[in-house]
Amino acid sequence: MQLQQNTDRIQTTHIGSLPRPYALLDAMKAKYSGQNYDEPAYQKTLRTAIADVVRAQVDCGIDIVTDGEFSKPGFFTYIRERLDGFEARPGMKLQLFQQEVAAFPEYYEQYFKQAMMGGAVISLAPVVCVGPVKYRGEKLVQTDIANVKAAAAAAGVANEHVFLPATAPSGVGKNEYYKSDEEYFHALAAEMGKEYRAIADAGILVQIDDPFLADIFYEPGLDEAQKKRRAEIYVEAINAGLKGIPAERVRFHTCYGINEGPRIHEAALKDIIGYVLDIDAGSYSFEAANPRHEHEYHLFERVKVPEGKVLVPGVVTHASNIVEHPELIAERVIRFARLVGRENVIAGADCGFSSQAMYNTEVHRTVVWEKFKAMRAGADLATRQLWED
Fold it and tell me: For the chain, how are helix, strand and coil distributed in percent, rounded to 5?
C-alpha cells in the first residue's frame, strides 16, 4: 500500500480553499489595500483562523485536511508575493472561459459581478511575466507549513493527513519575457519546484492545482496538434517541478474553473485523463459530482489507472448550495471503487469553495460544512458496503 491508499475505510478530503472568517477577511482587506495594519496582529488572526478551520474539518469527518488557503487572498496575489519577474496589469481584461462566456454573455456578466468576483477582498488583475522568474516565497511557505502543522497537531491529525495546495506552472500568468511557452513553463517549474519540495520535505502532501490543463481543449485558435503539444508542455513542466519528490507525497488537482453556470463549453474527462495520469503524483482529483461530468466514471471501464495510484473524484460539488444526500455520495464512491478498487478511491469535492478571499462565497459558508458532513456519512455508507462484500 502506498501512503495515500485506503486500508480499511474510504478516506475523505477536499480541494483546499474554504470560506475565510470575517475577522480574517477584514484583516486581509486592510493589509492588501494599503491601509495601516498591525503585522503581528494579522499573523495571530491568521494562525487562529487556521487552527479553527482545521478543527472544523476534523469535526465534520474530513480525514485529509489543509489550512483553507487562508494565507492566500487569491492565486494572482500569491504569485506576485512569491515570484519575481511578474507585474499586475489591472487594465488588462481577464480572458476567462472564453467560449462559455461568449455563448452566455448575459449570464456571465451577472455571474462575474455577483459571484466569482463580487465581494472579493482585492480585485482580480492579470499578472504578466516581464523578467526572469525567481522564487522568493521561502519564508511565506514555511509560515504556511508551520501554521497548518500546528493546527493539525492540535486537532490530532498526523502530518501524512495534511496537504497544502500550490499552483501549477500553467496557472502563474501570461508570458511576455521568455522566447517560447516551453521555455517559460520550464523556468516556472524550476522555481515553483522549490515550493513543492519545501512542502513535501515538511512531511505533508503537496497538491498541485492546475485548472488550466482542461482549458486547453476549449481554447480558441488551437488546432488538435497545438492542443496536444500544449498539454504535453504542461505535464512536462509539472513533472520537472516535482523531480525528486516521491509521488506518494503529491496530489494533483484539475477542474474547469467555473462554479455555477451552463458549463457547456468544457473539456470531457476523456480529453485530459491521459495527460493527468502522466503526472508524477500519488493521487488525482477531478470533478465528478456536477451534472456535466458525473457520467464520466464510465471512462474507467476502459482507462487503466496505474498500479498504486489513487483517484479523488468529486462526490460533492462546489457549484450548488444543495447538500448531496449521503446515499448518493455512497453510490458515487462505490461506482469508482468497483472499477479501480476500494483502496484507490478517496472521497473529495469537485473544487474549492473560495478560491478568492471573498465575503460572499457562492456556496454559503454554513452549507460547506453540511456538505462535508454528508460526505463523511456517504463515505461511511460506502465503506460498509465495500468492506462487507
Answer: 50, 15, 40
304-315 confidence digits (pLDDT tens): 999 999 999 999
Q: Does residue 160 form part of some domain?
A: yes
Secondary structure of residue 202 in the 3-state scheme: coil
Q: What is the pTM of this model?
A: 0.95
Q: Among 89-98, 158-167, 280-289, 293-302, which is the least confidently predicted range?
A: 89-98
Tell me how far apart the alpha carbons of residues 54 and 60 are, in angstroms, rounded to a whole number: 10
Establish if 221 belongs to a structural domain.
yes
Strand partners, 310: 283
In residues, how long is the chain? 389
Strands 283-286 and 310-316: parallel
Q: In what order do the strands lie in the sheet with 174-175?
A: 83-88, 127-135, 174-175
Cα 351 from Cα 263, distance rounded (Å): 15
In a domain, 10, yes or no: no
- State which amino acid sits at residue 130: V
Write down the mean pLDDT value for the chain.
93
Coil vs helix vs strand at 286: strand
Range of the domain at 227: 22-388
C-alpha grid cell for residue 177?
Answer: 519575457
Query: What is the grid cell recorded at 63?
Result: 480525514
Question: Measured between alpha carbons, how far is residue 125 from residues 38, 92, 117, 348 in Å?
Answer: 25, 7, 11, 30
Instruction: Give the whole-angstrom CA distance, residue 149 versus residue 51.
Output: 9
Does residue 6 lie in a domain region? no
Compute the distance between CA of residue 354 and CA of residue 129 in angstroms, rounded to an integer: 26
Work out how many domains the chain is built from and give that number: 1
Residue 74 to residue 213: CA distance in whole angstroms: 19
DSSP string covering 317-331: -SS-SSPPPHHHHHH
Q: Are 155 and 58 in contact (CB under 8 A)?
A: yes
